[in-house]
Every structure is written in C-alpha cells, then in structure tokens.
Amino acid sequence: MMISLRKRPVGALVTAAALALASLAGTAAWTATPASASGRAATDTALASASGDASSSPGNRASALTLPRPTGPYATGRDTLFLTDHGRADPWVPAAGPRRLLISLHYPARPGSGGDPAPYMPEAEARLMLAQRGLDDPEWPGLVAAARTHSRTAARPAPGRFPLVLLSPGFGTPRATLTGLAEELASRGYVVATADHAYESTGTELPDGRVLTCAACDEVDAQPDEAGRRKVLAAVATGRAADFSFLLDRLTGPRPAWRHARTIDARRVGMAGHSIGGNAAASTMAADRRVDAGVNMDGMFFDPVTAHGLDRRPFLMLGTDTGHAPGAGDTSWDEGWDRLDGFKRWLTVRDSGHFTFTDTPAIGEQLGIVDPGAPLSAARSTTITRAYVTAFFDRSLRGRPARLLDGPAPAHPEVLFQRP
Length: 420
Hints:
By secondary structure, this protein is an alpha/beta fold.
C-alpha cells in the first residue's frame, strides 16, 4: 500500500501499512533489492525448471515473464470497461469532473474462442509503478507490460451464470497486479471485476492515452501527522465502497454496461482486496448489502469494521505473520476480528511480505528481484493465495465444503490459523 508517487531509493520504499506499523511497533518497511547477475541467472533457471516455459538465460527474460497458469477447468476471457459515475465528483481532483473507473473483467470462456492473450498492463503504467519502487532498469517497463497472461480478448463466455467477485488493489498499485488471482478465480467459474480507482494508483492509462497519477498519494504525504494520514486512508476505503456500489449497479442493473452481464449471478457477490483494497472490502460490505462475503489480504482497517458487524456475512483476513498476527502491531485486525459476527477466519503466512498476495512475487522473481524480508517463494505465494481465497469464496458463495478453512493443512505449513 504505497503512499507516495515520488520516487524513493529502494531502501526507503514505504507502504502505508508499514508506515503505520513502524510508528506503532517499530516494524521495518517493505524493501526490495535487485539481485546480482548470478542470482538473476539462478532465479531464471529455477523458474524454467518450475514452469517449463521460462527461459534460463537472463538475456532472454522477455520470454520468462509470464503469470502462473490458472488451475481451474475453464478457459478465461478478459474485457475492459471504462465507466464514469456522473453522480459523484472525483474526491481527489474535483476539477477533473466525475469519478472514473477502469475495470478489468475476467470470466469463464469457451475453449478456443477469442483473440490474442490480453495484455498485462500499459507500458506507461509499468514504468511509473517500477519507478515508485526505485527500480530503474530501462528494459523492465517493457518486459512487465508484456508479461504473458492466460486470458483471451473477445472470448465467448462459457454457458451458465457465475458468482461475481470484485477485486480492489493496494493503494498506489495498478489493478493489473491482481491479474493472477483474477485469472485463477475466472478459471474456477467466477466472473471477476478488478477496478482501478482514478488518482489512487502510480499510473492509470485512460482509453484516450492520458495517464492519471496518484493525487491521493500526494494528499497522504501532505498530512502533518499519522492521524491525518489515517484519516485520508480511511476516506480511500470508504470512497472505494462508493465506487463498487456504482460498479454493481452498472454490472447487475437494468441496463448493464458489460456485454456479457447475463453471465453474472447477482445473488452471489463477493469482494477481495489487497492492502487498502482489503479494507475497502469490509467498507463495501458495510455500505452495500449486495456483497455477501469479503477478504482482506494484508490491509490495515483504516476505516474500522463497523461496531455492529457485517450482518453475519463471512469474512477472511489473510496476511503476513510478522505484521498481522494477533498483537503483532496492527491492532485494527484485533479490533476487526472482535466485531466480525459471521463465519470468519484469521490466517497469517510465515515468511510472507506485504505484496505476497499479488503478482509481485511472480514478476519480481523473473526479473531477478529479491525481497529479503519475504523469503516465501513466488510459487508458494501464488499457491497459498489462490487456495485460500478460492476455498473461502467456494464456501461463502457456492455453499461448497472447504476443509482447507477448518484448520492447519499439511500441504500449506506456512499458513497459521489464529484464534485470539
């Protein structure tokens, strides 16, 4: 959950969650450092062995940048929507006019249909995201932008109606960084809508080519103290709740904006988010009864879980063990846990980092980037995130048994069940 658009040295990279924890409990912020040439080669070789289609040569990294393949039975398609909420001015740049959202829609598709694989992200967005993290290799924006996805553009939907999952990225982070999770859920029979919230990302490229940068990040940076920063970040979460209520109207209302909206079962809606997006999942559930279940992936509850709970709707908290175990420093999880009044699970992951639950580990390993504070491998990061988020939505939206949520599993020894 990065709080500033301005470029910093790598060692000074800060997330809003880590910043708050650092001031409360002395927790170190997330850092990343480029690997040595030999380390980069070893990483590429390991990826080639693990995936079968990654190059073992650092000089051929373009072919190595690929997202982990989805594991479900469905092929996946992807559409993009650009929506304008004429009922609200943008909260960060009112002079820009109405609130705007860019939405990626991943959905179960008919095998063999569609065009080319969907692009990962525009190069302008990749450049700004990498620069914010202090990663200046001139080749990397093009490589990241061209990362291979597993969804086809213009694919025909699979027959049937499917539950809808809303995804919200971390503060300052493009929606593309949740693509791997979106593709996995779509391959398992969900329609997935991932939102970029205007002026809340390092870069959001509009259909006309303009790139919006992170005015909300500047607003956080302008605050004189942590109380001010927390207040702005709470407004981010509640603002996103309004965004997703609008999005639900446009996807499930009488005149839907998406051409394949008939594939959505509006009676079964879940939401997950990373970092501030995880907080936004709870905020959206509090504001909109249509959302039946939520997941917070390593996000501080700047906007607290409401005192009266979430009307007994299920909620999963999945986070780092160092930052989000009971009493670890982020007391908002302890408070949120006490207020959650439905089926709930509090899981932490050993050796994970703030970005473990996104595409960052998979992309970073292929670029030869290491995070010494989060030694969990990209393969394990991907497997754990997919397994537990999918199990939770299968249980909550489909009524399927989810034994994975009953207690520790030998297949996932890194995952700890917290019962404060």
